[in-house]
Design brief:
- The chain is an alpha/beta fold.
- It has 3 domains: about 120 residues, Helicase, Ruva Protein, domain 3; about 170 residues, P-loop containing nucleotide triphosphate hydrolases (Rossmann fold, 3-Layer(aba) Sandwich), CATH 3.40.50; about 130 residues, Orthogonal Bundle (Arc Repressor Mutant, subunit A).
- Helices cover about 55% and strands about 10% of the residues.
- The protein is built from 19 helices and 8 strands.
- The strands form 2 sheets. The protein has a 5-stranded parallel sheet, sandwiched between helices. A 3-stranded antiparallel sheet has the order 6-8-7.
- Helix 2 runs antiparallel to helix 12.
- Bound molecules: adenosine-5'-diphosphate and magnesium ion.
- Magnesium ion (MG) binds next to helix 4.
- The site of magnesium ion (MG) has 4 residues, from helix 4.
Length: about 450
């Protein structure tokens, strides 16, 4: 407008000063615009932070329905025998969704449309030892500070004793994996209490590992809830929805080109499906744009660079620090995926692939160099000299335990299969990541590069 005004009033002021005024005004406006845009970019970065959890989590509608129904039913019948076991990879929204549901139900209880309940959260990862779970629970629930053993017996008495006035307790046991002990007594007791007729205890437990029930002793497993729910990793479409919703909610959707968001989702969907990684890539992309002067939108090229910065280094170091037999299994999974074009593979076919790879390898390289070669200095040589606890060609059972440890490192996923004892396997990283991470591994370079 200023420019137009200057142009329309040549009679009042000579041309030259008008141009000066116009240029100055444009500069001022550009400055104002730049500042506003910088603010918008910062707001976008903030909306992409983990702590900016939306009021209603998108993409978990089905799970929200199931957990809410479980809690409503349990509260209606006063808690007896109520436990829900939820598992899913980290970053699949388990904790956030349960907390959101508790907020909703607490509001209903406050309004009097639902029986009142007491909510207690126990995060096992934050405990010094698993047995401290008793002390913390006794303190939250009974207001008593006691060492673990006494706390356990106080709680046991509490849950055994009938008390009409007592509210139902909803106990969220987060990071359940960390309550694992050799005897598994903490997990056993926790899941045993809701079975007491008077306990009024409702448990929702969250585990990050998929194979926890299989690692439990039969006696303990029998106590773990029959009600189980699995949070699948987010798909690419869901990741796009989640990130787009965060930008729209904060009115900062203009900061990203659509393709940039889609690319950030694709980078992660192909691998872990962990929304925290997509969000981190997007935040880093905003930073890169800001470092470039902060003009314009975040483009796919920013996202590419951000992803290289973040994921590349993480994955490469995780793979590179794996033990030789773990690396071998990763190579076999990667090769099988590339050969078949399938992302979900049966462990049996991977094992067969690994067996044939290893036998061909020793055929190619009959001379073992054993002495003085460490895994760190030569992974190719260590391939030929596996640790003594492993036969050169692992058995299927050994393969399962190696796969389980890779699952815990989030380098691949194991998915139980109903009809067989052998799980399915899915690589959590790209095939090319395996080759990139193992530049000195002869097998990886021979079959994957
Ligand atoms: N559906 C979703 N929508 C928006 N943000 C999500 C969603 N799921 C996860 N997040 C984000 O990812 C973070 C990790 O989720 P969290 O609930 O802690 O996962 P988990 O407990 O499964 O490890 C949350 O803090 C939240 O910011
Ligand atoms: Mg969690």
């Amino acid at each position: 407008e200023l420019e137009a005004a200057g142009a329309r009033t040549p009679s009042r002021s000579p041309v030259r000063p008008a141009v000066v005024v116009t240029a100055a005004a444009a500069e001022v406006r550009a400055g104002v615009d730049d500042a506003a845009w910088a603010t918008t970019l910062s707001a976008a970065a903030k909306a992409l932070q983990l702590s900016s959890v939306p009021h209603l989590l998108p993409c978990r509608e089905k799970e929200r329905g199931q957990i809410t129904a479980f809690l409503r039913t349990s509260l209606a019948k006063g808690g007896l025998g109520s436990a829900l076991y939820i598992s899913g990879m980290p970053g699949t929204g388990k904790t956030s969704l349960v907390m959101e549901i508790i907020r909703t139900l607490s509001a209903e209880a406050e309004a009097g449309t639902l029986p009142a309940f007491k909510f207690v959260e126990l995060n096992a990862m934050k405990l010094a030892t698993p047995h401290d779970a008793y002390s913390q629970l006794a303190s939250e629930l009974l207001g008593v500070y006691a060492a673990a053993t006494r706390a356990a017996s106080l709680l046991d008495t509490h849950f055994r004793t009938a008390n009409k006035q007592r509210l139902a307790t909803v106990l969220l046991v987060d990071e359940l994996d960390f309550l694992m002990t050799r005897q598994q007594t903490v997990i056993y007791n926790l899941f045993n209490w809701p079975q007491y007729a008077n306990s009024k205890l409702i448990i929702v437990s969250l585990a990050n590992t998929m194979d926890l029930p299989e690692r439990l002793l039969p006696k303990v497993a029998s106590r773990l809830s029959p009600l189980r729910l699995v949070f699948q990793p987010y798909t690419r479409e869901q990741l796009v929805t989640i990130m787009a919703a965060r930008l729209t909610d904060s009115k900062t959707q203009a900061t990203f080109e659509e393709d940039a968001v889609r690319l950030a989702a694709a980078k992660v969907a192909g691998t872990s499906g962990d929304v925290r990684r997509s969000l981190a890539i997007c935040r880093r992309a905003v930073e890169l744009l800001q470092a470039d002067g902060g003009r314009g939108k975040v483009t796919p090229s920013h996202v590419h660079r951000a992803s290289r910065d973040l994921l590349g280094s993480l994955i490469v170091s995780a793979v590179a620090s794996c033990r030789p037999w773990e690396q071998n299994l990763l190579i076999a999974v990667a090769l099988q995926q590339r050969a078949t074009g399938c992302h979900v593979l049966s462990l049996v076919e991977v094992w067969e692939r690994l067996s044939s790879l290893l036998s061909s390898q020793s055929f190619h390289k009959p001379a073992h160099r054993r002495a003085g070669v460490t895994h760190a200095t030569s992974s190719a040589a260590s391939l030929l000299t596996p640790p003594s606890c492993f036969s050169p060609i692992p058995t299927l059972a050994e393969c399962v335990s190696v796969a389980a440890s890779l699952h815990r490192l989030r380098l691949l996923f194991l998915e139980p299969v109903k009809s067989t004892p052998w799980p399915n396997v899915r690589l959590a990283i790209g095939v090319s990541d395996v080759a990139t991470a193992l530049p000195d591994n002869e097998l990886a370079q021979r079959v994957l590069a």
